[in-house]
Design goal:
Blueprint lengths: L14 E6 L10 H11 L6 E9 L4 E4 L2 E7 L7 H18 L8 E5 L7 H10 L3 E5 L12 H17 L2 E4 L2 H10 L7 E3 L16 H10 L6 E6 L7 H10 L5 E6 L3 H11 L7 E4 L5 H9 L3 E4 L8 H9 L3 E4 L2 H7 L4 E3 L6 H8 L4 H18 L2 H12 L2
Helix pairs in contact: 7-12, 10-13
């Protein structure tokens, strides 16, 4: 390696915060991407400079929401891609600080616990800089059904090592915080709870906006004549159960799923459930126009949430903020978020098909009641402004 170029002319009085582990901003569907986009957008203090790593096919820099973003080139190597990305992004952030001695007490904020096997090495470098290691452990990645047993063992080991070496652990769910303190009590972890957020503003699109009416026409539906699901097409989001239960119901509405591409899993589900040609279920193209997606949520008859792994799911918060009625899988993480603002279903007793049938013709005053409860829940606990403020206080603690 060549001699490091020290930039003595560099001066700053800002707290430098390096955000590592999201795929980058501007956000698409990912929870961490949405979080970082709003963290930077809602920044209040002019004494903070955010740096955001972005997974990419080339190394370059750009600015977004006042944050310095840097692309990290990572080869297409399957599931290990995210691990390599985190390591390279952290190494770049540390090198950036090493070259700029004027940076005081930098924060290295890593989202998800993927690089535990190397974190001790990098923690020594962070300490040498006078910096601190913050992590958001996300949910239980080691529980995700897509992983093989050896991969799950790796995620669990990595989580343990990340918790062990972190200076501060920011949990997006009270359930996750309780789990961290119980599971890793031997390390006496320093934890706090700060949730994700949501935006309560209505879509800027009018009811007759061409983009919205065109989307409705493509899906062959009308406002409040469809149930909606939005999220990554992965097993732990229970798309198969949602589809099966919807087909069992007597609803004359459509089920529209806006999701990421996963042809293999889609074919697996269709081979079993035969829903693609049913005329009742549509798997729609991804919607990256945020105002259009918000308009679609606002006009759904109800939102169906089937996520069962993780902490505070951004898609649930966005649904509570925009959709009048929400049918939510009853697991602890979801109940913590929605409380009495949702109608719950589970995989056994309260089958989703029964919930759909019971509520398919809900009276308008009852719908308004659920809508008010949901919006109040967001305004009381989950605004991005309050969450960004809490993070800034943590970064200056």
């Amino acid at each position: 390696m060549g001699r490091r170029k020290i930039k003595e002319q560099y001066h700053t009085d800002k707290r430098q915060v390096f955000c590592i582990g999201c795929k980058g901003i501007p956000a698409k569907y990912g929870g961490f991407e949405t979080f970082v986009e709003n963290l930077t957008l809602c920044r209040k203090s002019d004494k903070i400079r955010y740096h955001v790593a972005t997974i990419a096919r080339e190394d370059s820099r750009y600015q977004y929401n006042g944050a310095k973003c840097y692309n990290v080139k990572v080869p297409e190597i399957g599931p290990a891609k995210a691990v390599v990305y985190d390591i390279k992004a952290l190494a770049r952030a540390i090198r950036y600080c090493e070259e700029r001695p004027a940076i005081d007490k930098p924060i290295f904020f890593i989202m998800a616990c993927r690089i535990g096997i190397v974190i001790r090495h990098y923690k020594k470098k962070i300490e040498k800089l006078g910096g601190r290691l913050y992590i958001n452990p996300d949910g239980h990645d080691w529980e995700r059904r897509k992983w093989s047993a050896p991969v799950r063992m790796y995620w669990k080991l990595s989580e343990r090592l990340m918790i062990k070496h972190a200076d501060r652990i920011i949990c997006d769910s009270k359930e996750i915080e309780r789990y961290i303190n119980k599971e890793y009590s031997a390390y006496n972890p320093s934890t706090t709870f700060i949730a994700y957020g949501a935006d309560l503003e209505r879509s800027t699109y009018a009811d007759n906006d061409f983009k919205f009416t065109e989307w409705l026409a493509e899906q062959e539906t009308k406002p409040f004549e469809y149930y909606l699901v939005v999220g990554r097409f992965v097993k732990e989001n229970n798309f198969d159960i949602i589809i099966k239960e919807f087909l069992k119901s007597s609803s004359d509405k459509k089920l529209i799923i806006i999701t990421t591409e996963n042809d293999k899993l889609l074919q697996e589900f269709d081979d079993r459930l035969h829903f693609l040609d049913s005329g009742r279920v549509t798997v729609a193209d991804s919607v990256y126009d945020k105002q259009l997606l918000k308009k679609i949520r606002e006009n759904a008859y109800a939102y169906i949430h089937g996520h069962e792994v993780g902490g505070t799911n951004p898609s649930l918060l966005e649904a509570l903020a925009s959709t009048d009625v929400n049918f939510v899988l009853d697991v602890s993480y979801n109940h913590e978020v929605a409380e009495d603002a949702a109608i719950y279903w589970d995989k056994d007793g309260r089958n989703l098909s029964d919930v759909i049938n019971a509520n398919d013709k809900m009276q308008q005053d009852r719908r308004a009641e659920f809508s008010n409860l949901a919006k109040t829940r967001i305004s009381d606990e989950y605004t991005w402004e309050s969450i960004s403020d809490k993070y800034e206080k943590e970064f200056f603690a």
